Task: inverse folding
């Protein structure tokens, strides 16, 4: 197993850099992930962005919404997402439905789904998103 150069690691963690082929097992330290503030005041950390050896584009990020924030606007995606709830309670709005999801819950969001999530708990809500395929490759640059 080879090591990544500092430049490659910083490029992957920068969250807007060119895609990196993810062909070797790696560890990404939480402390080294840059934090960005979203429009609604929540925070997000880009974990990794790249391309698997099989050709699929993948992007992973962890997000946190404090209690009481206005949720991000509903949006559609041109890729698939798997969202894992780590902490708190969220309301998942999609396809005319509203579903409650707590810690350990997993949500699959199909390509083209208009959706949004909202923190409905008293404390912070944290979740990890794995985006696969579709427009992820274009977004990666």
Result:
């Amino acid at each position: 197993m080879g090591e990544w150069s500092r430049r490659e690691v910083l490029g992957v963690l920068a969250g807007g850099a060119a895609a990196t082929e993810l062909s070797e097992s790696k560890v990404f330290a939480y402390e080294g992930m840059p934090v960005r503030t979203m429009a609604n005041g929540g925070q997000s950390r880009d974990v990794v962005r790249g391309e698997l050896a099989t050709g699929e584009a993948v992007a992973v990020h962890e997000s946190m919404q404090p209690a009481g924030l206005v949720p991000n606007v509903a949006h559609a995606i041109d890729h698939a997402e798997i969202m894992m709830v780590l902490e708190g309670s969220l309301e998942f709005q999609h396809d005319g439905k509203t579903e409650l999801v707590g810690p350990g819950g997993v949500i699959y969001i199909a390509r083209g789904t208009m959706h949004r999530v909202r923190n409905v708990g008293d404390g912070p809500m944290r979740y990890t998103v794995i985006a696969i395929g579709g427009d992820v490759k274009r977004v990666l640059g």
About this structure: The longest strand covers residues 43-52. Confidence is low (pLDDT under 50) at residues 1-18. The first helix runs from residue 6 to 13. The radius of gyration is 15 Å.
